[in-house]
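Deliverable D2.4 — example input (structure tokens):
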């Protein structure tokens, strides 16, 4: 059965051709030399989380270990298990089109993954503490799910838990920026956990002691992970690492963004850790500019680039992938033989953003259920166009919905850039002139004569950062492309001098046979 609706949470299913980015990201995270930090960049709704989750699953990360999992789609937990099953890994590599590397797979087996969403903890005063708590909680949950546990594994698990607890205590010292008894007690606990003298630690700053403490905790964690999961005869490898995924940072308050980036760089950048962030560069740069008022855009970008050693952009969905996704959903909702042609029109109308595509298609299909079924292509396209106006040009649609007699005017204005007079008694001449002004303003980007002068446009862009200006320009390009396609469909599928089909305006559930008059 084809899936009828799609939510906008992450998914392992490669609907838009970006899944292989997650596979390659997983390989990158295993091949880089720690300490290393990678950022996966993309705009809102581009699929950053799905890319990160795909890499997380490929590396053996389990949703069971998350304290607040967002849950995959129904049936996706079986897919997740298939991704990390030892016996099927080689087959999956062939399906994904990536080279099977047994040594790399061994490194993946000995490199546990942790998932952290700072957005869920941004109310905390010190963002480093929720991250440490998440590592501890996921490690605890992970140990409870292991079935193959060697006899000498438990001491490492206990030492890891103890060191992480003490690290959380010491993080409070870093927050208070002064030496306290917590730091001294932590040093004694570290000494007991290491079962060796650590007097040199007393001469170090709190930040240096915390860095060493965290490094040793990760070493214990990796050793415990190896002993708990090793196969017969398998030896520990030297370049195993803890891989920490951090998503939704760009949703956080600006101080949280700045603090977490700084603390990870200063205190958690150890020789056995790899960090991967999913962020919207523009949102993060805007946050930094608000925190550091007076610093230039170039300085903020250079600061961000220094924190990461590699950048993986999320690609724009391809034309064929979008059409295939749309066809599947349209067919599932009984659009019949016209699904392929409607998918082509939709692909041209919609911005190439996975979240926006899902949102529009879900609402389109839900509204389609309120109309009588028909195999008429013209009606299907008219329904699509009206739904586009309903969502993306709501003010225009409200006029048509309330005063259907306005449709010839709206059609003529959009299709031919002319204003047709409507029958007397509907709108006065001044009101018709006002409608014309509103339409010209709403669709200025597709009319030859725009209401904004070149000087006004230049001044507007000069007051933006480069990222903001590019984002604004791309939004205009996408909107122009969509509305030009709208005009084409209006000319081709809406005859002139004809009123709008009332079914398209007054949506009602179709009558059951026994209810028909």
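Example output (designed residues):
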């Amino acid at each position: 059965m084809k899936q009828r609706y799609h939510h906008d949470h992450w998914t392992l299913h490669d609907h838009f051709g970006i899944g292989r980015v997650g596979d390659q990201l997983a390989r990158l995270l295993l091949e880089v030399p720690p300490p290393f930090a990678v950022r996966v960049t993309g705009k809102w709704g581009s699929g950053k989380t799905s890319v990160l989750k795909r890499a997380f699953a490929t590396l053996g990360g389990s949703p069971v270990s998350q304290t607040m999992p967002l849950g995959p789609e129904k049936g996706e937990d079986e897919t997740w298990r298939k991704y990390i099953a030892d016996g099927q890994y080689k087959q999956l590599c062939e399906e994904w089109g990536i080279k099977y590397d047994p040594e790399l797979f061994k490194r993946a087996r000995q490199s546990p993954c942790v998932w952290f969403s700072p957005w869920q903890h941004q109310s905390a005063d010190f963002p480093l503490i929720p991250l440490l708590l998440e590592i501890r909680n996921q490690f605890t949950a992970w140990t409870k799910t292991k079935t193959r546990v060697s006899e000498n594994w438990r001491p490492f698990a206990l030492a890891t838990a103890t060191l992480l607890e003490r690290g959380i205590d010491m993080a409070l010292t870093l927050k208070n920026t002064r030496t306290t008894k917590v730091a001294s007690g932590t040093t004694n606990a570290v000494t007991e956990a290491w079962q060796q003298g650590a007097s040199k630690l007393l001469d170090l700053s709190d930040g240096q002691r915390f860095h060493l403490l965290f490094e040793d905790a990760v070493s214990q964690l990796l050793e415990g992970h190896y002993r708990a999961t090793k196969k017969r005869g398998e030896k520990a490898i030297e370049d195993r690492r803890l891989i920490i995924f951090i998503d939704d940072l760009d949703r956080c308050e600006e101080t949280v963004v700045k603090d977490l980036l700084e603390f990870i760089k200063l205190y958690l950048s150890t020789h056995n850790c790899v960090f991967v962030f999913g962020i919207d560069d523009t949102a993060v740069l805007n946050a930094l500019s608000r925190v550091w008022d007076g610093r230039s855009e170039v300085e903020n970008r250079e600061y961000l680039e220094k924190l990461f050693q590699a950048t993986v952009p999320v690609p724009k969905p391809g034309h064929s992938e979008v059409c295939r996704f749309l066809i599947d959903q349209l067919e599932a909702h009984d659009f019949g033989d016209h699904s392929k042609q409607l998918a082509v029109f939709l692909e041209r109308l919609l911005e190439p953003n996975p979240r926006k595509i899902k949102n529009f298609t879900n609402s389109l299909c839900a509204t389609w259920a309120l109309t009588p079924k028909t195999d008429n292509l013209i009606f299907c396209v008219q329904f699509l166009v009206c739904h586009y106006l309903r969502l993306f040009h709501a003010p225009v649609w409200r006029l048509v919905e309330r005063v259907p007699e306005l449709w010839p005017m709206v059609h003529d204005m959009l299709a031919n850039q002319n204003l047709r007079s409507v029958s007397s008694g509907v709108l006065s001449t001044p009101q018709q002139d006002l409608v014309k002004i509103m339409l010209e303003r709403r669709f200025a980007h597709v009319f030859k004569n725009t209401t904004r002068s070149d000087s006004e446009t230049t001044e507007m862009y000069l007051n933006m950062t480069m990222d903001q200006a590019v984002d604004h320009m791309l939004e205009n390009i996408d909107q122009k492309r969509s509305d030009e396609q709208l005009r084409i469909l209006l000319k081709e599928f809406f005859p002139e001098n004809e009123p709008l089909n009332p079914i398209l305006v007054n949506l009602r559930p179709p009558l059951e046979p026994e209810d028909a008059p």
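The CA atoms of residues 407 and 500 lie 7 Å apart.
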